[in-house]
Structures are given as structure tokens and as C-alpha cells.
Prior knowledge:
Layout lengths: L11 H13 L12 H8 L3 H13 L3 E3 L5 E3 L20 E2 L14 H13 L11 H13 L7 E4 L2 H12 L5 E6 L3 H9 L3 E8 L2 E2 L1 H9 L4 E5 L12 H12 L5 E5 L21 E7 L1 H4 L6 E5 L1 H12 L7 H13 L1 H24 L11 E5 L3 H10 L2 E2 L1 E2 L10 E5 L8 H11 L12
Parallel strand pairs: 3-13, 5-6, 5-8, 8-9, 9-10
Antiparallel strand pairs: 1-2, 4-11, 6-7, 10-11, 12-15, 14-15
Amino acid sequence: MLGEYRIEGRRASEIAASVERGVSAGELSPGQVLPPLRELAVYLEVNPNTVAAAYRTLRDRGVIETRGRLGSRIRERPASTSRDAPRVPVPPGVRDLSHGNPDPALLPDLGPALAAAAGRSAAAPTLYGAPPVSEGLAAAAREAFEADGVPGDHLAVTSGSLEGIERVLAAHLRPGDSVAVEDPGWRNLLDLVPTLGLRVAPVAVDQEGPLPEELQQTLAAGARAVIVTARAQNPTGAAVSEARAARLRAVLGAHPQVLLVEDDHGHDNVSLPLHPLGGAGATDHWVVVRSVAKAYGPDLRLAVLSGDAVTMERVRGRQRLGPGWVSHLLQDAVAHLWRTGRRDRREVVAAYDSRRTALLDALAERGVPAGGSSGLNVWVPVPDETTAVAGLLRAGWAVAPGARFRIRTPQAVRVTVSSLPKDEAPAVADAVAAAIGGAHEEGRRYD
């Protein structure tokens, strides 16, 4: 049973702990199928209901997933493991277009911003009892939000967008609630939702955002929350258009009790405007989350949230009982970057746009449909991911398999273009066309 590893325990908690130990030690691998509950019950000499309770606990903790008659298996990124999920190794001489990171050469010099923050701290150190949002960041964030049509009356700061989304979901939902998420969507988010004991309800997206008809069906089926990426959607590069935003607001307006979370990690890193869904009365509880990771560097670990008064107070209240606040040194550094770096950001955004467009054009010339209207990635539908990834690797290019981001949508690969010079786009397009078996019949962009 499960090779060399033996699940142990007489009670549900003991059985669940035994499986978690196996995952943490690397003896139970991602994707490994667990024994049918009746088979394990016979082996452990316990009631099948005891094993069922253990599996339910593991599922709620994000350790395993259940696929009906296909049984239960260890998640690809189980929440109980103490190690990061292993990346596919990139052999020497192969260019890595799989990582999803910004171009390090286009990130700003943090020295002046950190020095300015340190100077402020030297003059007036932040002590216990200080406001959770620094005065400088609050002013800069409020101005930026309101310029985009998002009310900035109630703010919070978290250590990155994923923590912000987690705190917002925890503020309103209970285990077992259903959350509408984009499919394909951000891998970390797809892992986070079940880890919180919530159920994933996939909603398909095109290059203008989530499909309104699918969102309507998902909300009618009882979804309690919706998470939408405003622009630079990972992995497809989709951005919510003005027309799509109007249709989505209409759908949400019929379900005002639903929690709306908008992820705007593309702020200051994309040229397309924001068309917000929240803050206009569509739902009673809403949040817009703005991370600085893509524009100013992942290591800053900071996101600013704007939302309704109840949600923001719940997030700040829970934060007070934990970390208390995000370092004001980081907050003031980000405020300095927002005040001084606008002209530089326009040049960076133009560089990303030109690199992405170069690859999209090269793919279209070869009859390969692809999507990527904003952000750092291009999404390429393929007949078979394994074949495409292997073929590109042989040609010298590492890309991310779409399985990392998909739930029920067709197969694809994600190509990160942030560090891809425009003059190399034709070579990548040639390799993609060859890897998927030649040119498609019609040269068009994915929509």
C-alpha cells in the first residue's frame, strides 16, 4: 500500500496526521493516489467512516483532492509540505521562459526609496500603537485608487496580494463555501482556496475577462465569493474591458451578497486602464488588491487593499491579533516609488508591451493562435502539453505547462516574455509552431 510508506492510526486525526507526515517527508508524492477508504479501513481495522473523516480533514487542509470515482490523491502542491513545490529543471543552455517573473533589469533601484524610508524612521520611529497604514502610503494609495474610480476611504496593507486575498476570504467565508475563480487562473490562488476549506468553482475566461454567462451560472449555483483579475491575468494576459466590466457588474448586481475580490497586480505595470467592478454598488462587500511585486520587485512583499468599511475593518482587526502591521519602512519605500517613478514606469510598461506584442505577432504569422493582451505572459493553446513542453525544451526554450493553471479548460502552455528581446520572438515562435505539429489553419490571436 503506497509503496514503502505505511499509513497509521486508529482515529481520524491520527490517520490524517500520518498522511501529512508522509507528505512533509517526501515519502508521499504529489499526484500519488491514496487507497480507497474501505480498503484503508480494512487495513487499519477501523470503521470506514473514520477513514472518510480523515480524508475529509486532509481535503479541507489542502493536502489531498478527491476526484469522484478516480479516488483521492495528494495535491500537486499540498499545503502541509514544508518545501516549495519543485520546479522543472532547466538544463544548461536552455532559456527559461517559464518563471513568470518581471525582468530584473527593468526593476527600479530600491536604494533611494529605502534610504528615504530610513530617514523618516530615524526622525520618527514607528512604535506600537501606530496606524496600520503609514501616512505617506495611505495618501499615495488613495490618490491612485480614486484616479481609477475605486473609492479609497478604507485601506489595509498586507504582505503581498495572496495574503490579502486570504485575509479577505477568511473575513467572510466558512469552510465548505464555494468561490468562483478564473479558469485558467493563478496557480497559487487555485491552491489557496481549497487549503482554506473552500470549494473551487471554475469560470472560463477569454481576453476580456471572465465570461458573464458562466459567472451567472456559478453564482446561481451558490458561489459565495468571486475573484477576478483586473488586468495582466496570469496565465492568459487577459484584461477586463470596459464592455465586459459593465456586463459583469450587471451579473454581480443580481447577487449583492456575494463577496467580490479584484486582483490588480498589474497596477503600474500595464498600459491598459482599470475598469473596476467593485465600489460602485454591485456588491455589498468588495476589495481591490494592488500588489507591487511585478512593478517594483517581488521581495517588497507588499499589497494595498481598498474595500468596503466592514471588510477592511475585519481584515485590520484580524491583522492586529497577528503580525500587527506591515513594516512602515516598506510602506514608506513603496510610497516613495509611487511618487517618484511614474515616468520610468511608462518606459518599462512600453518595453513589456513591445516584447509581448512581438511574440504574438510572430506566432500569428505562423498560424499559431495565442493570447496576451497585457502583462508578462503569453498563453498558447496546444493539442498536447507534454509534447509541446518537451519539444520546446529540445529547441532550447523552457515554458510552463498549462496544467499548473487549468481546471477544466483545454491544454496550453504559458510563455513568459518579460526578459525576451523582440529580435528573439521569431525563434520562439518557430519552436512553438514546430512543437505543436506545424502551423494552424488560421492565423489569429486567442480570444
